[in-house]
Amino acid sequence: MNVLPDDDEDDAPRLPPGTKNYMTPTGHARLRAELHQLLRVERPKVVEIVSWAAGNGDRSENGDYLYGKKRLREIDRRARWLTRRLDIAEVVDPSRQTHRDRVYFGAIVTFVTEDDAERTVTLLGADEADIVRGEVSLYSPIARALLRARVGDVVKMHTPRGVEEVEVLAIRYPDAG
Length: 177
What we know:
This protein is of the alpha/beta class.
């Protein structure tokens, strides 16, 4: 199953039950790079510090030792989570989308809200979406509303404030490159 246990990365995005962990090649590479950085660079440095600190005597009052052990637990926890998410990832390249007239994974969609605010979002996987960059999870309310829509379609988005209608103005996909 794609859902991780509750004790693993509590602040990480959850996948709805029965869904796939779609990810772009860029997002997949970013998570792989983070895992590599943690296991091959950061963890060995922290192990070295902990080993040095352990040799200094009383561990109960040794800040380097205590902080290092805590940091090792954090690194190991994140590495386990990254490994699991990468193992279940289904990498999809949006630039290879053939049905570019509809909204699917990886689409860059411009829409207008009921109050005439124009927004552009990119539909990405739960592990790579970042609202600050205008990227929304494929499983977010706006993405679920926009999926399969065409330019000119008015779709209903369920928000905490109720149902809101948005009109799709433009759909594009990244160029193959």
